[in-house]
Design goal:
By secondary structure, the protein is of the alpha/beta class. It contains 12 helices and 20 strands. Helix 8 links the parallel strand 7 (about 155-160) and strand 8. It is elongated and about 75 Å long. The structure holds pyridoxal-5'-phosphate.
Length: about 375
């Protein structure tokens, strides 16, 4: 393994992922788990997460892009792989060769993909995406029969049928009910028991286990993160957060009352204050909007003061502490905890954005 000298690192607990997987298995009954490992497994490391999932009985991995699918193939990850987003025609023979399943996202796509297939290779495995209300990709419900004709007349193997919810993470709502109803109609109309039908993301799998069909696509909560505060407040089981972010104090000094800290001199010490410097900044994913966010040192919360720099930031200590002292930015320390959801609240965004913004410079280590 590459050695890193800077103490800043993300520690991924693969057992937490295993535990979350187990929860979803129990909740989803006979349905398969499709582990969503797009975007480098939401920043947790695609290969490590994929291997852990496969070790634990998962047969399906889902990614967003053809390149992500190919990365799994190149690393000899043996699983069924589904590309959920758009697959360009140029990738079609590659998908055929490697047995990668792809989403059929429109009638035009079916035509183009049909024209791009290579008849010397096995048929292209497709999952028909139905746009039941997300309005992103997918055929409209009225186009389904035409899509079926196209699928039958081309070098395709019709493997799956799916849709995606726009509001599964909110309180019971009309759009969600509407999407469920539209999908139910499509499923009835197609009436093909050989198809793998999957509709649920994490939020739907948590809140509506009755909608599991043949498989559920679990992304964010595989990593122990709640899809929204609504789901978090109504969780029927506990999620185990998988990602921790740590560093160490590299410099400590007493800054005099009235003196300012960091770029823009936005923070002034009210009294003489012990200020520590941490070797982590916005180029690592500690976004500038996290100024004021607390970190844990010795299990106690201390604020980030002054502007966050590209590679460093400062925190205020209650008393002098030594250099080398462990700092937990995300995760548990001595009974205290800072969760990704807390960062999301501070940044006024969703938790999804946090781990995918931890950059390559932050080594991922596994426990
Ligand atoms: C990303 C994605 C998922 C996973 O959603 P989570 O909310 O992270 O569980 C499922 N389905 C599709 C189509 C997606 O793009």
């Amino acid at each position: 393994m590459t050695q890193f000298y800077r103490p800043t690192k993300a520690v991924i607990d693969l057992n937490a992922i295993q535990q979350n997987l187990q929860m979803f298995k129990e909740r989803s009954g006979k349905a398969e788990i499709i582990a969503v490992v797009k975007a480098d497994a939401y920043g947790h490391g695609m290969m490590e997460v994929a291997r852990k999932a496969l070790e634990n009985g998962v047969n399906w991995l889902a990614v967003a892009t053809p390149d992500e699918a190919l990365l799994l193939v190149e690393h000899e990850i043996e699983a069924n792989i589904l590309v959920m987003g758009h697959t360009p025609a140029a990738f079609i023979p590659v998908a055929q060769r490697h047995g990668i399943s792809v989403a059929a996202i429109s009638l035009d796509w079916l035509l183009a993909a049909g024209g791009a297939t290579d008849s010397d290779l096995p048929p292209l495995k497709v999952h028909l995406k139905v746009d039941t209300g997300m309005r992103r990709v997918g055929v409209q419900a009225e186009e389904v029969s035409e899509a079926l004709q196209l699928i039958k007349s081309r070098l395709f193997s019709f493997e799956g049928l799916f849709t995606h919810f726009a509001t599964a993470d909110e309180d019971r709502n009309e759009l969600f009910q509407q999407q469920v109803k539209t999908m139910a109609t499509v499923v009835r109309e197609i009436n093909d028991p050989s198809l793998m039908i999957h509709v649920s993301n994490s939020a739907a799998a948590i809140m509506h286990p009755d909608l599991a069909f043949d498989a559920v696509r679990i992304g964010i909560s595989l990593y122990g993160i709640a899809p929204s505060s609504y789901v978090e407040n109504n969780m029927p089981f506990t999620l185990a957060p998988a990602l921790a972010l740590e560093t160490e104090i590299v410099h400590v000094k007493c800054v005099k009352a009235g003196e300012a800290i960091s770029y823009g001199a936005t923070y002034h010490c009210e009294q003489d204050e012990w200020i520590a410097t941490l070797p982590i900044g916005y180029a690592d994913g500690l976004l500038r909007g996290l100024q004021g966010q607390e970190v844990l040192v010795r299990g106690r919360r201390m604020p980030i003061v002054g502007r966050i720099c590209m590679d460093q930031c400062m925190i205020r200590l209650p008393e002098k502490m030594p250099e080398g002292e462990k700092v937990q930015l995300i995760g548990r320390q001595d009974g205290a905890q800072i969760r990704i959801e807390e960062w999301a609240g501070k940044l006024e965004t969703i938790a999804y954005e946090i781990p995918v913004n931890l950059t390559k410079r932050v080594p991922r280590t596994y426990c």
